[in-house]
Amino acid sequence: MFRKILTAALICFLSAGLFAQENDNKAVLKLTVDEAVKLALENNVSVKRSELSLKLKKRQKNSSWNSISPTASVSGNFTDDLEKDSYSSSISGSLSVGLSPSIYSSIKSAVLAYEAGELSYEATLRSVELNVRKSFYNILYEKDNLASQERSLETAQQTYDANLSKYNRGQLSELDLLNSQYNVESKKPTITSLRNTYTNDLASFKQILGIGLSIQIELEGNLDEAVSKLEIPESVLNGDLENLPSVKSAQNSVDSAKATLLASRFSAYGPSLTASYSYGKTKVKDVDDLSTSNTLSLGVKIPLDGWLPWSSGALSVASQKENLEELKLKLEDEKTSAAINVRNSYNTILQAESQLETLKKNVQLMQRTFDMTRIAYNNGSKDLLTLQKAEDNLLTAKTSLAQQQFTLISNTLSLESTLGLPFGTFTKSGSEN
User: Fold this and answer.
1) Residues 142 and 389 sit within 8 Å (Cβ to Cβ)
2) Which of 372, 264, 369 is nearest to 319 (CA)?
């Protein structure tokens, strides 16, 4: 009896587990763009790897002073002379420390390496967030485009069905019927291709988010709403170039090169100091007194090779000088390039905004033209070719508008990334949702 009860309970447990798993598989994860960003920053592999690298650089920075840590040792010795029936034992300890001018440069280099790691980590976070936001809106665009193509297919199918009825009643030629059938069939490969692209991009988006490919997601938002909130002030052209991420990275390279040059100079010309202290006691058989050793030694080493222009030290200093000057030139060039990129992005956005209203009017015009042409075709005053042309024009107008909306959003995100501003800065509500 107990076994039957246990078996029944186990079956119920497994059934409940399978039912819950089935429900989980069918559950849809709804995401806004900000929620998608949060998910990616928590789970993305690139973010985790960059975080581990930053932690390593932090440990290296915190222990960069360890070259001045003293060296300590303790040793013991026992000797037994079997021939003379004599033995001796001793114990000693020593402490030594070395000081060189390169200690400062080593610590400075570790600090700069950590700062470079921070910049790299921040760049990784921004790169992932930028990728998530662009992919989010790109998927929305692909979804809208696919829906438009599918509606166009439905319209073409309705036209074919109507033509088939007319053909069966003897009111339409077979050529017109075949043309309308071809119009239906010709749209299907395009829709299949768009659907495959949408599916592949959605899978790549899930990979960026760090979630399983089997999880069903639904993106909340639309291009119209996102575009309506955009507002880019002209003041972005007058921003401080020093705060741009690319300029900060170039400046860090210059600072690191200065630290390396200083280290090369210390190595070639700087003196090194050493200090050591040792203390020991020795016990000999049949001798009551312990012999004691107590030694302190100081030393200084001054390299002279560095003063020879052909020596490795002097050549290293000269090489570091040239490298520093090259990086300074790159820094100035980066400032100029950044200013040009900001201005070009701003102008591109203005151009896209000016074209947006025209494209909206085109959609309205093509929609009205198609509706009137369809009515005229059904009444017999327009031919099938004219109807198909009106339908193609409407689809092209809708696609062009959606493409321009995505381009505007993408360029705005790129501008925010270039300026190092929080994403969503150029929205009227301060948030993209």
Assistant:
1) no
2) 264
